[in-house]
Every structure is written in C-alpha cells, then in structure tokens.
Write a structure and sequence with these properties.
By secondary structure, the protein is α+β, with helices and mostly antiparallel strands. The protein has a single domain, classed as 3-Layer(aba) Sandwich (Aminopeptidase), CATH 3.40.630. About 30% of the residues lie in helices and about 30% in strands. The relative contact order is 0.15.
Amino acid sequence: MNSQSQSGYLTGELVILEPMQREHIAALSIAVSDGKLWELWFTSVPHPDEMKGYVDDAIAAEERGEALAFVVRDKFSGQVVGSTRIMSWDQANRRLEIGHTWYAKSAQRTGINSDTKYLLLSYAFEVLDVMAVEFRTHWHNERSREAISRLGAKQDGVLRNHRILKDGSVRDTVVYSIIEAEWPEVKQNLLHRMNQFELNR
C-alpha cells in the first residue's frame, strides 16, 4: 500500500509525502490560501507571507534531528495540498508526535488526511518501531479533534493553559495517542476508509 524511497518520499494511494524543501514555499503558499487557513484563530497555520520562515524553521528542526517535515502532494492532481510533520521523537521511550498538519480546504474530507496518516503511522510503527504516536490540538479545534478521533486515537487528557498563541490567547491542548497494540485495528480502519474514498472518486 505504501513505499519509501531512499530520498525520503512516502507514497500512498492518494498522496505523496515529500521531504519539505525551500522550493516548496510557493506551492505551500498557494495551498494555505485555499480557505485562508491562517484566519482560524485556533490553528497555527502560517500566512503566505510567513511561509518562508515556516519552511526554514521546519528544515532547521530536521537538521537538528528533531523532526521529519513533509509536504503533502495530491497524487492525481500533482498539486501540493498541505503539510505535516513527525516530531518530538523520544527514541529512549519509543514515542513520537505527528503534528503541524494542515490541508487546503479543497483537500479536506477527500481521503487525503486518511492516506497521509496511514503513511505516517505505518512509518512510525513499522519502520521506526515506536510504541506510541501522539497527536495534539487546540481544545476549540473541533474539526481536528473529530478527525483525530476518527483515526482511532484515544484522548489521554487536556493540558490546561498550555501555550500562549500569537494573538495573546491561551490554548488548552487536547492530547491523544495510538499505541502499538491498537495499530492493527487502526490500520484496517484507515484502509477501509481509503477504499471508500477510492470507490467514490
């Protein structure tokens, strides 16, 4: 269902996850403008004018060994439709987080997220051999919380007054996880959902 090349690409049924490079700045700026995602106060999505700094920060985190940043490319249209990242990899405790995920409005609820998560979770559990994958989101980001729950992730708790956002508001962060014992069932659920999207194309 998925493959990884030596260049770091992850290829699925609907998407190709490409290692984020500065050459992606323009395409990411176009993608984030589809739906003006930065206007959602409860997300941390960059404005097009901030995209260069966003990409530079992601690449710097990767160079420090703290993250693996990807752009999400629609396999059929060829368009870059979003961004995602493996981060906070605690190798001693075999845990990591999947975050900094956003998609152009036109790519939402199309199967893109399911395929992206399938690729990242497969890589985490089957290649990196982690025992838990964590997801975090804003308490008020109901769409994100619903999407994480649909994956099969369980809510671990809420970090209250966790972070001060750019606008000065204080974020309560909801923490979810999938553990390795749950991965086979989550995997089958994701495969089923992607098949349904394929049938409806």
